[in-house]
Queue: 4 jobs
Job 1
Amino acid sequence: MRVADNLILGVDPGGRHTGFGLIQVGPGETLLLVAQGCFSPDQTWPYPRRLAYIYYGLDELILNYRPGAVAVEGLFVGQNIRSVLSLAQVRGVVLLAAAKGGAKVFEYAPRLVKNTVVGYGQAEKKQVARMVTELLHLTEVLAADAADALAVAICHAAQMRLSRRLPGLSSRHLRRVGWRNLTTEDLATLNYDPDKK
């Protein structure tokens, strides 16, 4: 079964709660919510069983919807080593599920996600959740981890839209600077029409 290039799965990895948010890029670059939620394994379980719970949940989600892209939030700078190791293990499970499902994987720094969605790289979780709700025209209240995952998916959609409009700009450059931080010259190329020279 082929993957759906217009479906983006955002994932916010965490040992206690791994948030997920699946969006569809519709006509006119509209963003539509397809599914959202959290995988929250029982904290009394041994750690390998918790990782398996997250893996099988993501695997089922990816196999059911076949997203073309899985966007994952990167690590926070300054986390303690125990948290980093735990999070790295969860991220490994996420990457495995994505690879098994045939999806391309993209990673975005938390600061870039916030900057893309809210316009401010130091935004708080409540601000991110509020903007996600507005951008997707939702009325329901989202769990914080699901909102963060949807923010990652929205960030990926914005980066891909920008890369199509700025074909000369590398994806590495886009990930580094974000669409809100482009130079005036970069922005001028958004209106570039190859037929008008």
Note: Residues 4-191 form a domain with the Nucleotidyltransferase; domain 5 fold (CATH 3.30.420.10).
Job 2
Amino acid sequence: MGGQISWHVELSVKSGQLGNFQTLTAEMVDATRRERGVLSYQRFVSDDGMKIHIYERYADSAAAVAHLAAFTERFADRFGAMVERKAFTVFGDPSAELRAALARFNAIYFKPFGDFDYWA
């Protein structure tokens, strides 16, 4: 995996917040587009609009830490008012600094399986 980090987050949309969350997501996508080391930044919504799945991938732990710092500063309060995190799953081998930054999300970690030459 070459140090890449990715995560999958499951969210539940709070009542009446889907439109607000879509507006916030547009702001977040625009801001994240300018960050270094972001390889993938995607959102998916259920047919009923009640669940959101997030998939993000970063070049390395440092890029993920930088993203979390920017998220916390600019978006965390509004984000938390609109959705509830149900699960936060991290893939890769995160640095101690990234694990510390993710501690508040009760993340579950999965390391690469075996010493295979995986591809993206």
Note: The two ends are 8 Å apart (CA to CA).
Job 3
Amino acid sequence: MKLDVIKLDGGKAGSVDLDEALFGLEPRADILHRVVRWQRNNAQAGTHKVKTRKEVSYSTKKIYRQKGTGGARHGARSAPIFRGGGVYKGPVVRSHGHELTKKFRKLGLCHALSAKLKAGELVIIDDASSDGKTAALAKQVKNLGWKRALVIDGASVNENFAQAARNIDGLDILPTMGANVYDILKRDTLVITKAGVEALEARLK
């Protein structure tokens, strides 16, 4: 399928052929959901921790005699039933990540690209280059109507463009290897350079 290519100043720069296997799929929410969950679970720190009964600072001496008090039988002040005692089956430091096959992750990225194209939120630009001036790039972005955009470049990102985009709210840029389902879906506009299209096709085939 063909898609028009534009320049950052809004001018036309021809067209590009997009691979149907990457951009022409019927987006499936279940596949996208599974890949996003895998990404977010792997990103979760898992550093939450509570003190168990053996870790709280209390004497292990029996707090009162076994019989004759008319109350429940307790062995130590560290029991979970007491204020300040250990927590029973509380959270511990662990990884929340789980496995997802490489083939499925690749499929999820193809569905994310296809979803953006189908929604009319995919823009192809000639290249992502700039003189490094934030004000000039911000004006171009405003004229193009990009509010929350992700720019995917080729194997590497143009340093001047990255420097100019650094302080523009809602504009992010990634190299091709950094392209992922979560970042693509949470932006309103997906912008890919011609070099980025070629690199994505090489990566996902």
Note: The radius of gyration is 27 Å.
Job 4
Amino acid sequence: MDNDWILAKTPAGVEEIATRGRRVPTRLRTVLILVDGRRSVRHLSESAAALGNIREALAELRHLGLVAPIEAAAHAPRVAEPASRASVAPAARLQPQIVAHSRPAPQPVRRRSLALARLYLLNAMEQSLRQADQPVRDHLRTATSRAELLMAFEMCRDIAAELGVAHIDTIEEQFMGMLPEES
């Protein structure tokens, strides 16, 4: 993670702050709250050093899909979308937002592996499904192929629908991003 990256909360990150749906550990939640779309990784690390290894926490939040880097135009001022309405002064809320258009931020290469996808799904199901995740866990323990992991995800989707888990689409997006392509 580059020191000059500026991170912002993703929609899933904003949802987590509002609902605590994923039951993110307190330390990670605190770091998530600090991410505002304006401060660099370096600044966050320096200003919140008392919380421990902030870079590691930011990497974990990024892995969970709760934060993402935004492009900071080096030569032009940019107005980022605020992390929340409360983080903007009342007078500024009345002014229209000006967004600087520039080339899209380069997307970092995402590592893909069956093991990574399986671990992510285990973690996501533990946080989202709470006690209802045992059938998925049993299936994931023996899953050794892409097809078996996809079948496990479909089980997760069914359980999530029964429990009313709203962010299953976010979990699917992250999971599919980690799952290797078919060979």
Note: Residues 114-178 form one domain.
